[in-house]
């Protein structure tokens, strides 16, 4: 079973600005609480391995669980967030104003059209699937934690479940600190849980932001 965990809250997720592969904000205090809450609930599971994006917000989210179970996270570059290029750190309103044509194309089909200077969803799919295959080659059974990011997790889930990649922004939710689980059966990937946040207390679940 693979557990896909999105990192906890950052100032960028709280303020709903584009925060991709070129941005590396730390977790907020609430984000650290989210990471601790995940560790408290899930540390009793028998974990085979923990993998993380190289970005600080993902590593910091994995750290509490790693401390609890006495395991180090393995960093895989393919798990990093989608590159937003010149949109990094901007709001949607700013992007629509400054890059109207690029934003319109990306909004219609992010699979083939990238943010200005950034990555397409297809490019994210290729590198993220390669990282996932590396994980599966090493651990064909057992519980494996993958700590990554909103777009990357949704692209991976769409790819595994046969959902059109260009619809990743409109078909699957992935709020901060949410967990989605996939079991790999003989018949193919089975989604068992999507965007679960039951490990968070209500006040954390109700915080604004993406």
Could you describe the 3D structure shown?
- It is a single chain.
- By secondary structure, the protein is of the alpha/beta class.
- The chain has 9 helices and 6 strands, in the order E-H-H-E-H-E-H-H-H-E-H-H-E-E-H.
- It has helices spanning 11-15, 29-42, 56-69, 92-98, 100-108, 121-138, 150-161, 168-171, 202-205, and strands spanning 2-6, 47-52, 74-75, 143-148, 179-185, 188-196.
- It has a 6-stranded mixed sheet with strand order 3-2-4-1-5-6, sandwiched between helices.
- The longest helix has 18 residues, at 121-138.
- The two termini are 26 Å apart.
Approximately how much helix is present in the residues? Answer: 40-55%
Contiguous low-pLDDT stretches (5 residues minimum) are: none
The N- and C-terminal alpha carbons lie at a distance of: 26 Å
Residue share in β-strands: 15-25%
What's the helix count? 9
